[in-house]
Amino acid sequence: MTFQPQMSHKSPDPTALPAPVAEQLATLALTRGRPLLIVDADEVLFYFMRGLERFLDGRDLYFDWASYALHGNIRQRRDNAPVAAEILHPLLQRFFAEATEELEPVDGAAEALAALSETAQIVVLSNVPMPAREARIRALARHGMAYPLIANTGPKGPAVATLLRQVMAPAAFVDDIPHNHTSVAEMAPATHRLHYIADQRLAALLGPAPDCHHRAETWPDLQAHIHSLLTQT
Ligand SMILES: [Mg+2]
Questions:
Q1: Lower CB density within 10 Å: C or N end of the chain?
Q2: Quick one: three-class SS letters along 74-106?
Q3: In whole angstroms, what is the distance from residue 138 CA to residue 204 CA?
Q4: Which domains, and CATH codes, for the chain?
């Protein structure tokens, strides 16, 4: 799960590709015609909530597991009051700065990606804040997942559509957040969309994303689906 800022009146066009994302995409060396797997990181490759709970615990805060959102669910231990929105954003920036490199890898993810990399090229598309991008790259490498990372902002459809135009090949997308599936469905509808939430407690809070093709429960399940999808001719 990642922090989703409240949409403000001056929100950028959700179908536009932000310039810093376009710059990163331009550096990828993708092979035209080779299947593409696009994977999210938080709650897909790394246990975001486990790390966040540790971080909150050290600050007399806790997550109350009432819904699939950070806003409203991070509370003060002393009075159970939710942390105000203007405090939440800097708190989460601090969390990403301190904890991104220490998050635990999700069980089975590295093994599944290694097997899938024999038939597909892999890109990690994460809404990690730009200042934590290098830490995420180091964590991916340390845990056997040294695939190119794109630090995205906002909805993921524009970046996925750009990737698809570069490869012109079958593509699969894995993410925990339903509105990312909706954005990809709108902007890159040919992408096969797999909904996966690594943390079982979070997974229990949410049904399948309305715009996904399949909700997966484990990385071996994802691997089997992705392999059959990307090797169909
Ligand atoms: Mg995520």
A1: C
A2: EEECCCCCECCHHHHHHHHHHHHHHHHHHCCEC
A3: 30
A4: 19-47+104-230 (3.40.50.1000), 49-102 (no CATH)
Please give all residues whose CB falls under 5 A of ion ligand 1, grouped by chain where several chains appear. 40, 42-43, 176
* Cα 197 versus chain centre, distance: 10
pLDDT score at 13: 85
Tell how far the Cα of 31 is from the centroid of ligand 1, in angstroms.
Answer: 26
Residue type, 50: R
Q: What is the pLDDT of residues 106-152, one digit of tens each?
A: 999 999 999 999 999 999 999 999 999 999 999 999 999 999 999 99
Q: Which two tokens stand for residue 153?
A: 């902002």
Q: Ligand 1 centre and the CA of 81: distance in Å?
A: 26
Q: Report DSSP state, residue 46.
A: B
Averaged pLDDT score across all residues of the chain:
94
Model confidence at 7: pLDDT above 50 = no
CA distances from 120 to 182, 191, 205, 230 (A): 23, 14, 31, 7
Mean pLDDT throughout 204-210? 95
Query: Structure tokens of 52?
Result: 């966040």
Write down the pLDDT at residue 211. 97
d(CA 216, CA 203): 10
Q: How far is CA 82 from CA 47, 63, 89, in A?
A: 23, 9, 13
d(CA 95, CA 86): 15
- The pTM of the whole model exceeds 0.70: yes
